[in-house]
Amino acid sequence: MARPKAIENRIELIIEAADELFARYGYERTSVEDIARHLNIGKGSIYLDFPTKEEILITILRRHAQRMHEFMEKKVESSSRSPLKTLQEMMEESVTMVFDIVTRDIHTPEALLHTSIQMKSRCSDFFARKRALILKLLVKAAAAGEISKSKANEDVALALMMGTSALFPPYYNNYFETTSKITKADLSKRATVLIKTLISGLKKADY
Question: Does 59 reside within a domain?
């Protein structure tokens, strides 16, 4: 096998291997040695690019956050329809996209972006950018006469994020007399109801 420094895509290989092992065994139970063994390289080769295992995880989470941001940004920039309708679609589709990603395996690391306070803090720019895109649609909605200008502000954007936070991991099913896991169909239906209700409230008179 080639020496580590000769592997041009070494970082990508490390990220892919770590993502796979974290999802299969969990972040805590996977060591840097495990990742190196999986790739048939020395542990020191990994430390050339990542000083700690946490930095590998952060890279995985930031890539996930970037993909989500690019999706939302595309929705905002490409839509020529009602800004409120675009906002509803963007929020609903984000819910199902995250569900598909974080439930692909039992320990999928991307879930930590939504469940770990430490990881949220390390990737706080993702939530700031999401809030900015929501605000951009609110401003467009105000300009289109869909809502009053007084509702096109950062506080409302933040309230929308807070109001829909239960639609993201962890998926606690505390609202029904059942212990079964929530399904994508159930989550999608509840997301539509909740998001439509929140957005409908924006159309009412000023509070």
Answer: no
What residues contact residue 79 under an 8 Å CB cut-off, 6+ apart? 85, 86
Condensed to tens digits (0 to 9), the pLDDT of residues 127-162 reads: 999 999 999 999 999 999 999 999 999 999 999 999
> 112 with 42, same domain?
no
pLDDT tens figures, 74-90: 999 987 789 999 999 99
Residue 41: count of CB within 10 angstroms of its CB: 20
How many structural domains are present in the chain?
2
Helix residue spans in 48-153 (DSSP H): 53-78, 83-102, 112-115, 117-122, 124-143
Both 28 and 71 in one domain: the answer is no
Domain limits at 84? 67-202
Residues 20 and 98 in one domain: no
DSSP state of 175: T
Q: How far apart are CA 170 and CA 200, in angstroms?
A: 26
State pTM to two decimals. 0.88
CA angle, 81 then 87 then 88, to 5° = 100
